[in-house]
Amino acid sequence: MPDVEENVPQKDLGDRESRPCKPPTPGRSQEDESSQEDHPPGHQVSSTLSGRGGEKGEIGRVKVCERVGWEKNERPSSSMLLESKVKETMHSTFWDHLKEQLSATPPDFTCALELLKEIKEILLSLLLPRQIRLRSEIEETLNMDLRKQEAERGTLDVPHLSKWSSHILGILLSQFRTTFLKRHFFHNINILFHYDRGIFKVLGLMEMDMVNYTIQSLQPRLQEHSIQYERAKFQELLNKQPSLLDHTTKWLTQAVADLTTPPPASPDTPDSSSVDYLAPNEAVNNAAPLSPSMVLSQGFLNLLLWDPENEEFPETLLMDRTWLQELESQLYQLTIVASVLLVASSFSGNVLFGSPQFVDKVKRVTKALTEEFNSRPEEVMLTVSEQVSQEIHESLKNMGLAALSSDNTASLIGQLQNIAKKENCVRSVIDQRIRLFLKCCLVLGVQRSLSDLPGGLALIEAELAELGQKFVSLTHHNQQVFGPYYTEILKTLI
């Protein structure tokens, strides 16, 4: 990873053992309702900037907008399942009734007219202002007064109107939706009520697409509003309390000290024969002059090591504290998973770990078994070692390859169990390299950092990409809001 100093703070993994992997859910207490004088400055920043009784505030609203999706793969609750079942039953009843009306002699077009009216309304709502010609065509073709007269005479051509509607859908749909329409509904073209039902299903998808598009188009404005709002609220507090940036100043001072003080040599650092350690271009360059971006990157990394007992959390990051705790939990679990993968792959190499399917299986097993790692690490890693050893044995057997010898199996299990120890060298190295990756993400960007991963992290590339993107997004927004304050503080430090 070029141009990035490897000045990642050393982490005492023992501190992390004693606290929960996931942060507690924030909530309002009785103290939240009391006056500002009863709380330290940090609490006032959190509550006043929020204006909403939680720490996510406007940042949270923007993040919600980023995450809104109408096709999310969520596990449905029992109430959702019941609602879906009732909705499905009602829709099925309606379409059965429509089929009966159209199949009658003479046909009854009552429901068909209502459907055509609704199709017209939806199509018009999906048009952009510049689509004048298409709007005129829809108005003319679905002229409901004319269609009602045709229905009364029994000459309403519903199949033609259905085909015409699908043609308009083809013009409006994205490529994915067009393929979806062809795959699911065009083959039912001779079954009228199926065809109309399909059109309505696709129209529903189009409305979802339009909502998502609107949210995405508004997102920059929402983000800018969030930045201005948070900065203005913070400035109001700062005018009342000039000492409000004391903790932030101390945090940045520590970051400068970390960058200017050579890190202590670690006795547990393995030699090059056991683990491929850092490349030459990742060496520490203490002679390079400090820059504000370097100090901020170091400071943000230090937040992922924050002692929960330390009350001097930077005032400018109080609203992001819960998000940072979540990222710390993800980083911690990734450290364990990557350590297991690195140790296990050293015994079977590319024979098994060259298969994405096998790697994913080991990941799933490890993640599931390490949920309670913090409370009982030795017991958890004993279970992990036995399960991973069994997976390797069965996979080698299925491939017709020789199984691991008894000595290798015992060594594999032993090394996996040692990951439970806070001083384990593999775990320490993996932790440092993940933090180095995150630092590179802040300086170089996620995609460039992924192209030059430190050794031992290739098997968790997808997870690192997700973690890095979240970390960069959070810190970028924070710098946009509080950048002017950071600049003033750093003028006196570097």
Number of helices in the DSSP assignment = 20
Number of strands: 0
Structural class: mainly alpha
**Ends distance:** 25 Å
**Which whole number gives the mean pLDDT?**
75
Q: Describe the biggest sheet?
A: none
Q: What is the multimeric organization of the chains shown? A: single chain
Radius of gyration: 30 Å
Unreliable spans: 11-44, 47-76, 179-196, 266-286
Q: Portion of residues in helices?
A: 55-70%
Broad shape: flat
Question: Could you characterize what this model shows?
Answer:
Pfam families: Tcp11. Residues 1-58 are annotated as: Disordered. Residues 8-20 have a biased composition (Basic and acidic residues). This is T-complex 11. The chain has helices at residues 13-17, 41-50, 57-67, 78-103, 110-126, 132-141, 144-153, 158-172, 175-184, 192-240, 246-260, 292-303, 321-348, 350-353, 356-369, 377-398, 406-418, 425-444, 446-450, 461-491. The chain has two domains: 13-39 and 244-264 and 288-491, no CATH class; 81-216, no CATH class. The longest helix has 49 residues, at 192-240. The protein has 20 helices and no strands.
Kindly list the characteristics that best describe this protein:
2 domains; 494 residues; 20 helices; flat
In short:
The chain is mainly α and 494 residues long.
What's the arrangement of secondary structure elements?
Layout: H1 13-17, H2 41-50, H3 57-67, H4 78-103, H5 110-126, H6 132-141, H7 144-153, H8 158-172, H9 175-184, H10 192-240, H11 246-260, H12 292-303, H13 321-348, H14 350-353, H15 356-369, H16 377-398, H17 406-418, H18 425-444, H19 446-450, H20 461-491
Biased composition (Basic and acidic residues): 8-20
Region (Disordered): 1-58
Protein name: T-complex 11
